[in-house]
Hints:
Layout: H1 12-16, H2 26-45, H3 51-58, H4 62-90, H5 92-111, H6 116-144, H7 147-178, H8 181-202, H9 217-229, H10 231-261, H11 266-319, H12 325-351, H13 358-383, H14 389-413
Helix pairs in contact: 2-6, 2-7, 2-8, 4-5, 4-6, 4-13, 5-6, 5-8, 6-7, 6-13, 7-8, 7-11, 7-12, 10-12, 10-13, 10-14, 11-12, 11-14
Amino acid sequence: MTGLGGCCSDTLDWMSSTRSITPTSPGLTVLILSMLLGLQPITTDLYLPALPALTEGFGAAMSQAQLTLTALLLAFGVSQLIWGPLSDRFGRRPVLLIGLAAYVLASVASTLSPSMDLLIFWRTMQGAAMGAGVMCARAIVRDLYTPVIGARVMSKGLSGLAVVACASAPLGGLLSDVFSWRMALLALAIFGAATLALIALRFEETVQQKNPKALEPATLVRTWLEILRNPTFVAFSALSAASYGGLFTFLAASSFVFIKVLGLSKTQYGLLMFTMSFSYMLGTFLCRWLLPRYGVKRSVAIAGLFSLLGGSLMVGLAAAGVVAPWAMIAPFYLFMLGHGIHQPCGQSGAIGPFPQAAGAASALNGFAMALTAFVMGGWLGTHMDGTIYPLIYGIWFWSALIALAAWTLVQKQGAPRAS
């Protein structure tokens, strides 16, 4: 949550042409990355235990409830196409300050929304603002580190994301049970304000040379085309998008399946989500163990096996008539172990070839993931039928695509190709 061929000869030339620069301490950098990347899971996960109650409270249809997540993610993806070039032109710090301030305001407005339509609107604004933080986090890694080191630093930041994700669903369930779903949404404003304070007080600009032409239409189109034509970007973006598609399928459908179909309480569901996030955190630790030993391409190939095995076990157990919470979450642990490897490698790998356009590359990679989630959310909104099958078949589909990308595209195009 690396455009490199590992610690082997296919990375040496590229590594020698790109030096690491660390104007802030490594610990502070990881904390900043964890908070910025953590905006995404806390925004999507914390309110999930409250989603069924929220839907009933407004008397809304399930398709409208899905829009509170899918519209947020579409805005999140599209906004990055704007935030990325802005950050290349003016730097990461001003974009972060504006984006995080907007996130706090949208979070407060979401909490106070009197109708589902207004909640969808403010969640959309929240997603657009969130794009600034997550996009800049990925770009900051490329600003400061070579691609190989960046993959390991990104995995540390994503470990921090996993800690936030571990706390999000249990906290959301507790707040929803003890108070109401509105308190779960208010918690997002508090987290956003803390992140804004950290950036305002401790973050130093990481862009060494701002690009004064980054926002010129001709330059922007040319930059995007160069990025999209780069086979390394395509390979790693396909991997990260497919992996996020599987995660989003679980996020979008699991609260209805586990609470409404399988009968768990909101608090029980929150604890289950904690264990899921914990398995993802273990995956990021496994990523850091695998990278120096096997390189990126082999590490991703191993993770592809975890992904496919997890999705296939979910379908196999359901086909055998085993319908129980453990039969869904235990295989999904394997999927999340793989996710903890695919995301740091995929996100860093997609941006790695573009040290002078890290914002634009980060934006396109983020847009690909968000668009994947939006399309999947639309499908789930029309296919959720009160059974477990849309959820498990969706995860199986994405696990197959992950394995395909990990075992073909990344193996062929995973060696860095700078543009």
